[in-house]
Amino acid sequence: MHAAIVETLAARYAAQGRLVAADEPFQHFQFAGRADVTAVDPAGPDLLHHEVKTALPNVGELAGAWNVKRLYLARALAERHGFRLGFRSVTHVLTIAWTADCLHVLRLRGATFRSLGPDAPDAFARWWEGERPETPGIASTVVVIDPIDRPRAPTWASLGEHGADRPRHRGYADLLRELRDAGRA
Description:
Blueprint: H1 2-15, E1 19-28, E2 31-41, E3 46-53, H2 59-81, E4 89-97, H3 100-108, H4 110-116, H5 122-128, E5 137-145, E6 156-158, H6 172-181
């Protein structure tokens, strides 16, 4: 399921002409981590970073790794890409599978997830539509995503958005079964 969500994101941004990387490694002193999906628009330069979660068994561990990535990933990637002045904008998106299991944890730990993604999804929505973020700076948001293509249904929703509170899938196994039926797993 994780790979299907990564593929959905990477394919979308690659089709837009962005520089896309999956499982992008970075290191900050003793911390070594990976970003699930990154997209770079060299014109800004602008960076989009997705951290994909298909289950939420340990929110504390997730928060710790996420916060380190929000602090240090952009600097490491700017250096790697040769952007001496860094990125004009950085958009971090904690991207969570749209399942009942995940929504249950999002509801139980609402304040925690709002602190991890305090910003409106505007910058992410612009990336999704193939545009650049309007304003420079750093944005962090949390969205739920469904990798199953559904006509007339949004692929993603931000927390608190109408429809985001209703699961698209009961759990991991149900989504995996649908991905297999669609030939994507």
